Amino acid sequence: MRTLALALTAVLLAGCSGGSSGAAAPTGTPSVAPSADQSSASSPTVPAPRLTAAQAERALIGADALPAGWAVSADTLDDATHDRYDPKTCAVLALGAGALPLARVGFTQSGDRSGSLVQTTYRPAGRTPAEALAAMRSAVSDCASYQVTRGDVVTKVKTSTTTFPAVGDGTYAVLLQYSGAMMAVSDLVVQVAVGPQLLRFDSISLGNSLTQADLEKAVRAAVDRVRAA
């Protein structure tokens, strides 16, 4: 299973089906405010518990955490079991540093559906959340560009580090830019450690996306829900 559910799917399906007649470069590439130290957390309040899958499901944010016009979407899961990454080490950027998913929810804009948000709550396999964030940070430095192959469709990915306000027990953000066939997709990935869990947010843009302020509001709401679970 994977956390990046919509961005790569959109690109790959465009390659398989032909997509639209022109390139749709993202115009809503997220702009994020600088943070003095992304790995530093904001002032902790209540220690986060170790969630069961049922608790993680109940702690997911709802559409009320997002601006008007966003709604829960059923199209959030994608089977990437057979995707091939070149270099192989870059798979960590899509698979969430050895994810053991507990719960997932996705949202889309109800109008033109050019923006999506996917939240995944998971525990990293065989490592602490801090170590998982470090693994992603290391992968980004080694994967400035890479490619993903599904069947005979090849998607090129470029990565760039970015910043996001410190939230939870540690935060790391990276921008993934996918191109393939006749589409371009950007995905602002924000990973937040909350106790023994990681919360991953994929803010995916096919033209429009959440503003940085709206995304931060949703992320903070998710952290509060986990702490209160």
UniProtKB/TrEMBL annotation:
Region (Disordered): 21-49
Keyword Signal in annotation: yes
Signal peptide: 1-23
Ranges of compositional bias, category Low complexity: 22-44
Keywords: Signal
Superkingdom as given in the UniProt entry: Bacteria
PROSITE patterns: PROKAR_LIPOPROTEIN (PS51257)
Stated name of the protein: PknH-like extracellular domain-containing protein
